[in-house]
Amino acid sequence: METQLKSWSLQIDDMAARTQVPGVQAGFDALMCIDELKALHAVAKSKLDEFRAAGDAERTRLKVEMEIACTELDAAFKTRGRRRK
């Protein structure tokens, strides 16, 4: 999960960097997409951090929440890819 979060973070950073190219004005949709991905990534990372810090009793619930957050982030990446093609 941590490796996937790092990969997504790098992809988000790459997308954001492409909007900062001199002479290129990023579209509103592209900026909103990046903001959405950053927010979903922050939620997923937060759930992973909570999971790591939790006791055994809470881990089952947190694992489900973490998986949901990662699924939502993955779906957002797939949707973004379809929009840009």
Descriptive overview:
By secondary structure, this protein is mostly helical. The protein has one domain (2-84). It has helices spanning 2-18, 28-53, 56-84. Helix 1 (2-18) packs antiparallel against helix 2 (28-53). The model has no long low-confidence stretch (mean pLDDT 87).
Give a topology summary.
Blueprint (H helix, E strand, L loop, with lengths): L1 H17 L9 H26 L2 H29 L1
Helix pairs in contact: 1-2, 2-3
Concise structural overview:
The chain has 85 residues and is an all-alpha fold. The chain has helices at 2-18, 28-53, 56-84.
| Strand runs, count | 0
What is the overall shape? Answer: elongated
Percentage beta strand: under 5%
Rg, Å, rounded: 15 Å
Count of separate DSSP helical elements: 3
Mean pLDDT: 87
What is the terminal-to-terminal distance? 27 Å
Structural class: mainly alpha
Count of domains: 1
Helix content: over 70%
Major β-sheet annotation: none
Helix-strand string:
HHH
The low-confidence parts are none
Summary keywords:
single chain, 85 residues, mainly alpha
